[in-house]
Amino acid sequence: MNGRRVLSPVLLLGAGTGEATCGILYLAGYLRRGGIEAFVRLYDGDQTEDEVARSLEALVARVRPRLVGISLKWFHHVHRALLLARTLREIDPSIRIVVGGNTASYWWRELHAFDCIDHIVLGDGERPLLALCEGDPSPPNCVTLGPNGAPRRLPLEYVQGATNSEDVYYSHFDDIFLSHQDRHAFSGWVAPGKGCGENCLYCGGARGNQKAAFGRAKPFLRSEESVRRDHQEIAQRAWQLRYDFSGSSAAFLQSTWAGVDLSRHSCMYFLWGVARVELIDALAQTFEHVHMVLDIGCFSEQQRHEQMRRGLLKPCASDQQLLEIIEHCRRHENLDVEVSGIAGLPFASEATLKEEVRLVERVISLDCLVGYQRLEAQPGALATEHPARFDMVSEARTFTEFLEYFEQREPGDVSSVPMLRFRDAALERAVQRTSEHVDALARKHEEKKQRIALNGGTRLKNTAPSTLRFELGDWLGAHRVPAKVAREQVTVVRSVNGTGLACAPSLSPRRFTDPTLDQGEDGRILLATLAAFERPTTVAHAVTQLGAKVKLDPHSAREVIEHLVGGRFLQPA
């Protein structure tokens, strides 16, 4: 490449625990098609710094990357992104370390001060990252150094839109993952479009920040062909598809599903705006099961309309529209609904809090789930930047304040974030009481929906739709498994809701142990219990079988059966 030093292989990581943003999968496919050997680690379960170091050492030894890209999309992950970068620098100082994503683009000045970061990609990352890998001395969208040595943000040269994003799509899923376990962690995200045209007061990714960070003044739908390629690549590799873009119509999605059989797949659709019946019908007719999340901003209609009137909230359904949408959804037996809203938004009062509770109770009475959380502080959001306008205070606003907050979280705590609260102490207490009450209502209802009463005569069946077998080295990855146990067999079972079991009954924990495996006797008992219900069987009969086959006492046998029912591996026959 014109004598330039090419940086390949490349390793792409997410900055948070759990499943990383699907953005690194689009990037990896783009790099592969550009001639760069790219790999991803999609799922990260490490909690302590020691675990992070051990995992990265194994990954670096396996891939020998010349460049590592860290996706810093979500602000919750800024501390972890820096931890990953510092650890990688200690492991191999020659690796070029690049960060990108929404949060990296927003805090590029602050991040550039850390010597463990070599490059910051602003906005859309496909072409800039490929240019970095190819040794381009002037890669687009990257922070550069000015004449005085200070970081400089040049105008964005690469801004994806409807006419220049045809080359961004999923590909090379058989090459980019380092283990079957990591590939199975993919939950099926597809991005029909990008960007946002709204300026919701609580959101750090609203229209103004999209324009500043990505150069995108309005959202766009990707080409039908590129989204169709996504579906073709992942349909045989994922049990569900997930979407969260409001601009995709039924006609658009149906065209991208053409030629792909999704009749045995589940779908989770996060709808930002008012759901159209055509989209609801199309989803229900295409997928085996659909979970639709309807975002209505907040559960108080008065509060919701006031925010929309002031231009501070995206268009949301009225209470009447919401109830009509739910009624239409109820016509489809394979579709269930969750209604989502934020507690503690501006303009709250005793009256709006009562409205919230009434609507939540009405939604629950229609057997819909409720998603409900307090207003969090997001960098760049209007309410976070100017809380006094709404008579509120923010627990964090600056980069330093957010970083310090996340540095002080306990290992494994991935849920707590800085919050926005009301200055008026009495109002804040009332909002918190209502929030806790609604949380309790929602939790009780969800538990009731999932509860199955078991007795000796209850007939259950193994409803797991997927049972696969792998060698341990292929399942966990050769970089994590010693050669002496790499050929041990692992049986991987998925329940109807995606819960997974990985059983290695022949592998003694004394030889090798991994927290994601059910090993030895535990693995044998789980597989024996599933086998006992291959055909519809009563609990009492299965308990007797388990006593004879794996010497399990009746109490322990019932506990295992209840565990598998809770994970929806066993369901009423």
UniProtKB/TrEMBL annotation:
The entry's keywords: Iron, Iron-sulfur, Metal-binding, S-adenosyl-L-methionine
GO terms for MF: catalytic activity; cobalamin binding; iron-sulfur cluster binding; metal ion binding
Protein name: B12 binding domain protein
InterPro entries for the chain: BchE-like, Cobalamin-bd, Cobalamin-bd_sf, Elp3/MiaA/NifB-like_rSAM, rSAM
Pfam families in UniProt: B12-binding
Domain of life: Bacteria
Keyword Magnesium assigned: no
Limits of the B12-binding domain: 2-143
Source species: Cystobacter fuscus (strain ATCC 25194 / DSM 2262 / NBRC 100088 / M29)
Cofactor: [4Fe-4S] cluster
